[in-house]
Design goal:
The complex is a heterotrimer of chains A (584), B (420) and C (420). Chain A has 584 residues and is α+β, with helices and mostly antiparallel strands. Chain A has 3 domains: 2-43 and 148-224 and 326-379, FAD/NAD(P)-binding domain, CATH 3.50.50.60; 57-142 and 227-308, D-Amino Acid Oxidase, Chain A, domain 2, CATH 3.30.9; 396-576, no CATH class. Helix content of chain A is 33%, strand content 19%. Chain A contains 17 helices and 24 strands. In chain A, strand 17 and strand 18 (261-265) form a beta hairpin. The radius of gyration of chain A is 23 Å and the shape is globular. In chain B, strand 12 and strand 13 (288-294) form a beta hairpin. In chain B, strands 1, 2, 11, 12, 13, 14 and 17 form a 7-stranded mixed beta sheet that branches. In chain B, strands 8-7-9-10 form a 4-stranded parallel beta sheet, sandwiched between helices. Chain B has a two-stranded antiparallel ribbon with strand order 3-6. Chain B is of the alpha/beta class and 420 residues long. By secondary structure, chain C is an alpha/beta fold. Chain C contains 21 helices and 10 strands. A 4-stranded parallel beta sheet of chain C has the order 2-1-3-4. Chain C has a 4-stranded parallel beta sheet with strand order 6-5-7-8. In chain C, helix 9 packs across helix 11 and helix 11 crosses helix 21 (399-406). The radius of gyration of chain C is 21 Å and the shape is globular. Classes of the chains: A alpha+beta (584), B alpha/beta (420), C alpha/beta (420). Chains A and B meet through helix 7, helix 13, helix 15 and helix 16 of A and strand 5 and helix 5 of B.
Chain lengths: 584, 420, 420
């Protein structure tokens, strides 16, 4: 068994976990982060992308709101390239509460959230599809955030400051020394199938929706309130400003323009299992109905995807609906709470406040470690900020400038071959979904119809070239990441060549399996919204993979990966599977 | 007035119109756009798996005789042996006449297994000449050659997967600039480039250097477009090796060759093929459709005819549409459809489920004369017929029967429509 | 460039299923890498532009010729050409317009100026030195077939000064800039035919339809021209008069394109759209009502007919063909070439001239293939007539001129009305 010794063990590779690793490393502490799957596999990779101005909670949860606006300003500097400055509107439709808009404006002013009332005409000039019957509109500094890019940039910054980030390392057991102390964790290296023991005087449980399960392995009870939120992505940017309903936060009251899509969200339903989520027909109906209030006609738009994330909410002794549970961040000091030292659990909050959550958590950890190091993350930029804010057209522009049209693997999202190869070299590629999170492979209208095949072919090529090259010593995944600037992972112009590296290629599954897994993964997110144009698209994808390729009958058709079972679970409750045999 | 208007320019529509024109009827095709021939392998898939993906079909005609027992409403079950045989015979003769000969397995009646773009074995019944030498029942080793910089063909993946299935195969590359100075290029443009004898010769001489004796060479399906026969013959002659095309991601060059040849042939027979005609309305009196209207600038264009044949391709062709409430409808005449009652019954959880997805079996139910019927089995219109992927009770993609359904039902529907 | 409503052409990008059919048929992408193809430049790139931000991410869409072949073949109804046009307009809004393109947009004014002294204007412009200078300074291709100003005076002045038929049956004629200043004979032939059929022709005040501005992305200026035409023409529409045009591009703009591309849609635009007819379309309609005089003289000639992409864009079928085939002895042969290449102002641009000539090669080949006995060629669009003349050296005539000759009213060789 392998042993790793460190000062802080962080469990969870989402925004909070990587933020903690970054903060810790900047404070000079030795830190190891373990994530059971790929970075952002959890909630961070499944939200709508809102950079909160705080307006949403300004009346219901003012404390949350003021944290949001403060962090909003900070992140625009520290993670500039992950943020698109879309601005936001709060739109009061005639159905919405009479005096809420005034309360809203007053509360914004009170908390210090810039809020300006805009004329309907001006608002509609900017957003022509907005409800023409809107009564009042307020502008706030909402933004759109790319949580994948942000988490990777934060992780990169952490690595550069000395942290170790281990993907596909799953905690099986927190280790206890007697009754009163957690001393680390036993972790399974999924790629190699080996167990590792990581020992640290402080373990931080940032596993989000899974935090309860982690705590349980040490016999501790943490009742996470898993609030599932479903959301839908419209095929293109029908709006370019974040649109919010100006009323108490409720289901389906927000549309976020993010990258090439517009995300309509969200619902809030308490669930039992954070891993296997289904999207119910009523949720779709609700989102479409509410969406029609903000943007009339959106229910007839083309949706390319539906997914759900789980908010890891926490409220001591709470039994109500998850919609009304607090969004406040909660730090559980298990020494104070349960008499078990060496473990902290961080829950709640929102993506916008991840840095603050990390700061608070690490302040407490440093208390226990006796390390008096101040937090500097609020003034420290991560790699990539030099690119400035995200601009929707940047990939299109870079492809044209550098004549990369022939290099496009995913044409919908403008992913070049070099971008894909660079991403594949950086961390264990268990699934094309990992690469999707890095470079947006398969995230456009055809949902992998063309690029899945190309990616499989390219990865096979890489495998072949690796086999034929002189293999050097197994190098740590860490140093591989340092060679490549993850801040540029989404930039065609900065990935003109794949690196000539003789590091071993960490592709853990055969291209056939990668192909089948990814098609299944895409299918999972399509099922809830498969009608009309997207159904036609998917039938074309079926024609390609069944008729043309006969992919179901590839050799090793029964091989599975660590992710196969996860993808195979249906994303909707009602399917035709109950009707076995199929003849109609 | 036109006798027969065929709506849809996919394979079903093209074959139906050809049969009608061959029989001396005055026919024209109108279509919103071009069809699935542009996306598929360019061979004739008759029946590859039935009733689901776990049962591979070795002899499709035999299996099709049994279909009536298992699925009496399947379009193949509505056709008799004679009609099927007639349709296939007619297609073979037609293909020869238009300069694109197709052939079946040496063992008459067997399916052919050909390499797919990912290296799996795909079942098909009739292959164009250029694909035949790829037959996987043969034992000669294969050299799969791709072009470096062509993003829609991966010889290493193909060779690897063929190898895993017990075939001897290896991969090699030639530079793209042997054929073209361009970097950004599609399969169609590559095929046109190889129509040029000078480029063809250059390509052949490099290809020859790669091949070892006894190897047959698999290439992406780009071996010429208008001069395909010459291109193919000369490449074989100049390399001294047997060559076979492997289809690529869309656009499908073999499919476009077939479509172009069929359209030219229709022109020679005096039948028009008018694309860019999106049918938006129809006018019927009693049980007779008098005309249909297509969208045009200024005012819709009226198409009067004695008879109408729907070959609109189902969901993939736009002949059938759906919405978020679970509604499903036939887009031209609003014909009654056979379909799952609710959205919860449309799909199975696994994309590759061997039983497929019930929604894709949805379509227009027809009687034995291929005329659309209602829930009581009564004919809806006296002068409307339907063919191809828009028909109910089959899933042409799951069954690997895409071209087979198109050709057999297109032929039959045209014959029935032609009767007095 | 915001998408103004769910009806805007930008919304049709959602119809795209990435099938690559459009890319397979685009005649420009086939001959140059400078244009990445309709799927790429249209629905695909549009997802990266739709932000209402002034900065344009890509410029390659400038190489789209707006021939609309993509729209024709698309099975899904994506308005690719219109999406591209709006993208070009966004570029112009952000970066301004090159002087040359600004001149092209004002071709009506240039026509007017040259019309004052056409011989001098022709001498001054249509000589090698001036053309060379125009290429060097402005980027106007020196060999491109820019028309000569008519030395017989403008159409409008001829119409005003000659005695015209009065009748209860009235038809409004929209001549367009090219007929007015460069090919008044086409207008004369049209008037002659209409009067022969017993109609009084009204030529009201009218202005340039705005197509050169629309094609070059000058939307605000194009909108002014469109609204001006609306104000001038709608009153005639409201009086129930059909408004016919011989310029197939102008009619397309006035009854569909301007409204769609500019996102201007209201009751007026609908009324104008419904009243407008392409002249051949109107004559065909007359014939279907049994009201067309079919007492034609024999015109014994082989006549290659190049179907303009603009004519096909109407989706109205082939009315010119339908009418010309009524003429005894006339052997009209329909070509299949996708585009003559000139495509509005596209082929006049020095950086695009070679591309245009390559695109047009198929059309030239078709015309030449009809043999030396075919001395003339016909096409609905003046642009095609000039390009075909340039590429094949055959005389080009409009279908209405052919018709006028068949009625004995017109001399095709001299290109003038017969006396008396």
């Amino acid at each position: 068994m392998k042993f790793i010794e460190t000062q802080i063990l962080v469990i969870g590779g989402g925004a909070t976990g990587t933020g903690i690793a970054w903060d810790a490393a900047l404070r000079g502490l030795r830190v190891v982060l373990v994530e059971k799957r790929d970075l952002t596999h959890g909630t961070t990779g499944r939200y709508h992308g809102l950079l909160h101005s705080g307006g949403r909670y300004v009346v219901k949860d003012p404390h949350s709101a003021s944290e949001c606006i403060a962090e909003n300003r900070i992140l625009r500097k520290t993670h500039a390239h992950c943020i698109e400055d879309t601005g936001g509107f709060f739109v009061a439709t005639p159905e919405d509460d009479g005096d809420y808009p005034d309360q809203f404006r007053a509360a914004c002013q009170h908390i210090g959230i810039p809020c300006e009332e805009i004329s309907i005409a001006h608002a509609r000039k900017r957003e022509p599809l907005m409800n023409p019957r809107a009564a009042r509109v307020f502008g706030v500094p909402d933004g759109a955030a790319d949580s994948f890019q942000a988490t990777h940039s934060t992780a990169q910054a952490a690595r550069q400051a000395g942290a170790r980030i281990l993907n596909y390392h799953e905690v099986t057991q927190l280790l206890r020394d007697g009754d009163q102390r957690v001393v680390g964790a036993r972790v399974r290296d999924v790629a190699r199938g080996e167990d590792i023991e990581i020992r640290a005087p402080m373990t931080i449980n940032a596993a989000g929706a899974w935090a309860g399960l982690i705590a349980q392995t040490a016999g501790l009870r943490v009742d996470v309130i898993p609030g599932k939120g479903a959301m839908l992505a419209v095929n293109h940017r029908i709006v370019n400003t974040v649109l919010n309903r100006c009323k108490m936060p409720d289901d389906g009251d927000i549309i976020v323009p993010i990258h090439t899509v517009a995300v309509l969200g969200t619902t809030d339903e308490r669930v039992a299992d954070p891993e296997h989520l289904t999207i119910e027909p009523w949720e779709i109906e609700l989102l479409l109905r509410e969406g029609d209030q903000l943007v009339p006609g959106i229910s007839r738009a083309r949706f390319v995807r539906a997914w759900a994330g789980v908010r890891p909410l926490y409220q001591e002794h709470y039994n109500g609906a998850s919609r009304d549970a607090t969004r406040d961040l909660t730090l559980l000091d298990h020494h104070a709470r349960d008499g078990v030292a060496g473990l902290l659990t961080i829950l709640g909050g929102k993506w916008t406040t991840f840095r603050l959550m990390a700061e608070i958590t690490l302040n407490k950890a440093c208390e226990y470690l006796g390390a008096q190091k101040p937090c500097i993350t609020a003034h420290t930029v991560v790699p990539g900020v030099e690119h400035g804010h995200y601009w929707l057209g940047h990939r299109l522009h870079e492809v044209e400038e550098n004549h990369l049209q022939s290099e496009l693997i995913c044409e919908c999202e403008l992913v070049t071959r070099a971008m894909l190869e660079n991403a594949a070299r950086q961390h264990p590629t268990f699934s094309l979904d990992d690469l999707r999170r890095d470079v947006r492979l398969g995230m456009g209208p055809c949902q992998g119809g063309f690029c899945t095949y190309r990616a499989a072919g390219i990865l096979q090529s890489l495998v072949v070239s690796q086999q034929s090259s002189v293999s050097s010593e197994q190098s740590s995944v860490n140093s591989a990441a340092e060679e490549w600037n993850v801040a540029e992972m989404q930039s065609p112009a900065h990935n003109l060549q794949p690196p000539t590296s003789n590091l071993p290629l960490p592709i853990s599954n055969s291209p056939n399996l990668l192909l089948r897994d990814f098609l299944q993964e895409r299918w999972k997110g399509l099922l809830p919204i498969l009608w009309g144009r997207q159904l036609k698209q998917e039938r074309l994808d079926e024609l390609i993979y069944l008729g043309l390729m006969n992919a179901p009958h590839l050799p090793d058709a029964h091989a599975t990966s660590a992710m196969s079972e996860f993808y195979a679970r249906p994303g909707i409750a009602a399917t035709a599977d109950a009707d076995a045999g199929g003849a109609q | 007035m036109t006798e027969l208007v065929v709506i849809g320019a996919g394979l079903a529509g093209l074959i139906a119109a050809t049969r009608a024109a061959q029989a001396g009827h005055q026919v024209k095709i109108i279509a919103k756009g071009l069809g699935a021939t542009h996306w598929h392998a360019g061979s004739v898939d008759l029946l590859g798996y039935f009733p689901n993906e776990t049962v591979a079909i070795q002899r499709p005609l035999d299996a099709m005789r049994d279909i009536a027992r298992v699925q009496p409403q399947h379009p193949y079950a509505l056709l008799g042996d004679a009609q099927i045989g007639d349709a296939l015979k007619n297609f073979l003769a037609l293909a020869r006449a238009i300069g694109l000969p197709y052939s079946g397995a040496n063992q008459d009646g067997d399916n052919l297994w050909l390499p797919s773009p990912v290296g799996a074995a795909r079942p098909t019944f009739l292959a164009p000449r250029a694909q035949r030498a790829g037959e996987l029942s043969r034992t000669e080793p294969m050299l799969i050659v791709g072009l470096r910089g062509m993003r829609d063909f991966y010889p290493e993946l193909i060779a690897e997967n063929l190898g895993k299935q017990g075939h001897r195969a290896r991969a090699a590359f030639l530079p793209l600039d042997l054929i073209t100075d361009r970097r950004d290029i599609t399969t169609v443009q590559l095929a046109y480039a190889l129509d040029d004898p000078a480029r063809r010769e250059k390509f052949a001489s490099e290809l020859k250097k790669l091949a070892q004796s006894g190897e047959r060479i698999g290439l992406p399906a780009i071996l010429g477009m208008d001069a395909h026969a010459d291109t193919f013959d000369e490449l074989q002659a100049q390399t001294g090796a047997e060559i076979f095309e492997i289809p690529t991601l869309p656009p499908s060059v073999p499919g476009i060759r077939l479509t172009n040849a069929l359209r030219n042939h229709l022109r020679e027979l005096g039948a028009r093929v008018d694309v860019n005609m999106d049918v938006i309305a129809f006018h019927a009196e009693g049980a007779r459709v008098l005309w249909i209207e297509s969208e045009a600038s200024g005012r819709p264009l009226k198409h009067r005819a004695e008879k109408f044949l729907l070959a609109t391709g189902g969901i993939i062709g736009g002949g059938i549409n759906t919405d978020h409430t679970g509604k499903i409808w036939e887009t031209i005449f609003g014909l009654p459809l056979v379909a799952p009652r609710e959205r919860g019954q449309w799909f199975r959880a696994r994309f590759f489920d061997p039983a497929g997805h019930p929604i894709f079996r949805a379509g227009i139910p027809v009687n034995r004369e291929f005329q659309p019927i209602d829930a009581n089995g009564a004919r809806v219109f006296a002068n409307v017929w339907a063919a191809g992927g828009t028909l109910a009770h089959c899933d042409p993609i799951l069954e690997r029967a895409l071209e087979g359904i198109a050709i057999t039902t297109g032929s039959a529907a045209a014959c029935f429509a032609g009767r007095k | 460039m915001h998408t103004a409503s769910w009806h805007s052409v930008g919304m049709t990008l959602d119809e795209c299923i990435k099938c690559n059919i459009c890319t397979a048929y685009c005649p420009v992408a086939a001959v140059t890498e400078k244009f990445p193809g309709p799927k790429y430049a249209g629905p695909q790139a549009q997802r990266f532009r739709e932000s209402g931000q002034l900065k344009s991410p890509d410029l390659a869409v400038d190489y789209c010729s707006a021939c609309r072949v993509c729209n024709e073949v698309c099975p899904s109804g994506v308005k690719i050409a219109e999406i591209n046009a709006r993208a070009k307009a966004q570029i112009v809004a952000a970066r301004g317009i090159p002087l040359r393109n600004w001149f092209f947009g004002r071709n009506e004014i240039l026509g007017m100026i040259g019309n004052r002294a056409p011989q001098i204007a022709n001498l001054g412009f249509h000589n090698p030195f001036s053309r060379w200078m125009a290429e060097k300074i402005l980027g106007v291709a020196r060999h491109a077939p820019i028309p000569h100003w008519s030395t017989r005076g403008s159409f409008a002045s001829w119409f005003r000064r000659t005695p015209r038929l009065k009748s209860e049956n009235k038809v409004v004629y929209f001549h367009g800039c090219s007929t007015n200043y460069y090919e008044p004979e086409v207008g004369q032939a049209a008037v002659a035919v209409l009067e022969h059929l017993g109609y009084e022709v009204i030529v009201p005040p009218q202005n340039c339809c705005g197509l050169p501005m629309l094609n070059n992305g000058e939307f605000p200026a194009a909108e002014k021209l469109y609204r001006s035409n609306l104000a001038k023409l709608v009153p005639y529409a409201d009086r129930g008069y059909p408004i016919v045009g011989t310029s197939v591009s102008c009619v397309l703009v006035l009854r569909e394109e301007a409204s769609e591309m500019l996102d201007v849609e209201n009751d007026q635009t609908h009324r104008l759209g419904r009243a407008l007819w392409d002249l051949s379309e109107w004559l065909r309609d007359l014939h279907e009502q049994g009201k067309l005089d079919t007492n034609f003289r024999e015109l014994k000639m082989i006549l290659p007919y190049h179907v303009s992409c603009q004519a096909r864009a109407h989706r109205m079928g082939r009315p010119s063909l339908d009418v010309m085939t009524l003429i005894p002895g006339l052997d009209v042969r329909e070509g299949n070439a996708k585009c003559c290449g000139l495509a509005g102002t596209y082929g006049y641009k020095s950086e695009k001239y070679e591309i245009a000539m390559k695109v047009g090669a198929d059309a030239f080949r078709f015309v030449r293939a009809q043999g030396d006995a075919a001395r003339m060629v016909t096409s609905d669009s003046e642009i095609c007539r000039w390009q075909l003349q340039h590429g094949t050296q055959k005389l080009a005539r409009a279908p209405i001129e052919i018709l006028a000759a068949a009625y004995g009213l017109y001399d095709l060789d001299q290109r003038r009305l017969k006396a008396g």
